[in-house]
What we know:
The chain has two helices and no strands. By secondary structure, it is mainly α.
Amino acid sequence: MSAAPQTDTQDAAPGHRPGLWLLAGGFGLLLAAGLLLWWREGDRLFTDGLIAALLACF
C-alpha cells in the first residue's frame, strides 16, 4: 500500500484583502472630503444639508 502524498495546508492570505483596502480608502476619501467641506462652509453646510435631506425624505 502506498501512502497518499501529504499536502501542505498552510493558510494563504485571503483574497479579499484588496477589497478591504479599497473600502478603507474610499471611506478615508469621503471623510477627507467631508472635513474639507466642513472647513470651507462650516455650520451652514450641515444645517442646509440636513434640512435638504429631511425634505427629500418626505
